[in-house]
Amino acid sequence: MPSTTVHLLRHGQVANPDRLVYGRLPNYHLTELGARMAEAAAAELAARVGGGSRIVHLVSSPLLRARETAAPVARELDLPVHPDERIIEPRNHFEGLHVDGPELLKPRHWPHLLNPLRPSWGEPYRHQVARMAEAVLDAGRTAVERGGDGAEAVLVSHQLPIWLTRRSAEGRPLPHDPRRRRCNLASLTSLVFDDLGAGRPPRIVYSEPAARFYPGVNQLPGS
After folding, report:
1. Burial label, 223 (beta-carbon count in 10 A; 0-12, 13-18, 19+)
2. Which position among 44, 89, 123, 152 bears the catalytic label?
């Protein structure tokens, strides 16, 4: 069986001065700093190609912030961007709201807070893992078809689906504390498949090409 690596790239910082849950809402651009984060991730991937990696396939969530993050990667690696709905941000009942204590006390939200382990306020965790896993395996197969054994793919996605994919690959429970996610802005969660198609979980390699931009940046869980 062939080997491959699929890199899950989280988008850069998003302009969100009102600190809303923006989920799948349109027109949420990267900030200037977020664009620099995306450039840093693209430069890291280009350096890996310069060192011998064969990244031959690039996929993006259709949401604007992901497409803007994918753009410098496409430029640096000279690859087209393929949109894939399967790696989109999950739907969320709280889209468009600033979620704080007073907001959560409103009775209209209570039915959506009954089961945080599912979670009841949005797309179930296991559904997110299923669609992400399908997209990851398809991207790995496409990379191998285009570049041979060891070829790699990049998928530009969002914090929660990336983090759930990692937890699933590591055999950990999907319910978790959002404050403890290790999936920073413009980070790379790389899934290394030594034997694609054998059914074994990938090894995880995590890196933060944009870490120098993190000081002073308030990272909201999700997005």
Report:
1. buried
2. 89
pTM exceeding 0.85: yes
The answer to whether residue 141 sits within a structural domain is: yes
Supply 6's token pair: 């699929």
- DSSP code for 170: T
Contact 159, 7 (CB under 8 A): no
The count of structural domains within the chain is 1
- Is residue 220 assigned to a domain? no
- 223 found inside a domain: no
pLDDT along the chain (223 residues), means of 10: 95 95 94 98 98 98 98 98 98 93 91 92 97 98 97 98 98 94 97 91 97 84 59
DSSP H helices, the chain, are: 32-50, 64-77, 101-104, 125-147, 159-169
CATH number at residue 150: 3.40.50.1240
- Crossing angle for the helix pair 64-77 and 32-50, to the nearest 10 degrees: 30
Residue range(s) defining the domain that contains residue 126: 4-213
| Position 219 in a domain | no
CA angle 201–205–209, rounded 5-degree value: 145
Q: Which residues pair with 124 in a beta bridge?
A: none
The Cα-based distances of 181 to 17, 93, 146, 176 in angstroms read 22, 21, 33, 8
Active site residue 11: yes
Whether residue 134 lies in the annotated active site = no
Within 13 Å of residue 217, how many CA atoms lie on the same side as its CB? 22
Q: Which residue has the tokens 């790995």?
A: 140
